[in-house]
């Protein structure tokens, strides 16, 4: 298999891989999703990830697919997408319950829901999920500087 980093460097390579593979290949759809995700085309990534998970054979990197799909859902503010994000992260947690990033995202979902319920601006100790998400992405940027343009596109 081709490393996602190699795909990022040579997008024509992933097109060639998809051409050789069947449309029923979950790994091909996952790879397509990764390429779109790394380019910042989240709508296309979402479609490819959803397609890869809908096939009978699951992609080999289901955990990463679910993690990225959940993060795409989380970007949206609507309650329906928060529910979809929770489902994706919960499934990713079932695949690997030791992944701190999944737990962080699940915590953010809880905070987003509580943000909707808690509108008391007088509370000095209330931190919004947006503040925590920004802090999370910037800490992630420090841990993985090679992904800085992907993880934290808005420099603070």
Overview of the structural elements:
- By secondary structure, the protein is mostly helical.
- The protein contains nine helices and no strands.
- Helix 2 (11-20) packs antiparallel against helix 3, helix 5 (62-75) packs antiparallel against helix 6 and helix 7 packs antiparallel against helix 8 (129-143).
- The longest helix has 18 residues, at 100-117.
- InterPro entries: CFAP70 (IPR052628), TPR-like_helical_dom_sf (IPR011990), TPR_rpt (IPR019734).
- TPR repeats lie at residues 26-59.
Low-confidence stretches: 147-156
Strand segment count:
0
Number of helices: 9
Structural class: mainly alpha
Radius of gyration, whole Å: 17 Å
Strand content: under 5%
- Percent of residues in helices comes to over 70%
Q: What keywords describe this structure?
A:
156 residues; mainly alpha; 0% strand; disordered C terminus; TPR_rpt
List the helices and strands and how they pair.
Layout: H1 4-9, H2 11-20, H3 26-39, H4 42-54, H5 62-75, H6 79-95, H7 100-117, H8 129-143, H9 148-151
Helix pairs in contact: 2-3, 3-4, 4-5, 5-6, 5-7, 6-7, 7-8
Question: Short description, anyone?
Answer:
The protein is mainly alpha-helical and about 160 residues long.
């Amino acid at each position: 298999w081709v490393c996602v980093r190699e795909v990022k460097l040579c997008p024509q390579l992933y097109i060639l891989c998809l051409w050789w593979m069947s449309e029923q290949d979950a790994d091909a759809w996952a790879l397509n999703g990764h390429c779109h995700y790394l380019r910042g085309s989240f709508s296309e990534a979402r479609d490819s990830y959803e397609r890869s998970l809908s096939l009978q054979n699951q992609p080999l990197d289901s955990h990463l697919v679910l993690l990225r799909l959940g993060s795409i859902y989380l970007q949206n503010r609507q309650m329906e997408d928060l529910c979809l994000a929770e489902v994706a992260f919960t499934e990713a947690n079932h695949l690997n319950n030791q992944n701190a990033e999944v737990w962080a995202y699940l915590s953010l979902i809880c905070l987003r829901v509580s943000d909707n319920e808690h509108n008391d601006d007088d509370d000095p100790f209330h931190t919004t999920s947006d503040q925590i998400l920004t802090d999370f992405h910037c800490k992630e940027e420090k841990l993985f500087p090679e992904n800085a343009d992907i993880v934290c596109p808005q420099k603070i």
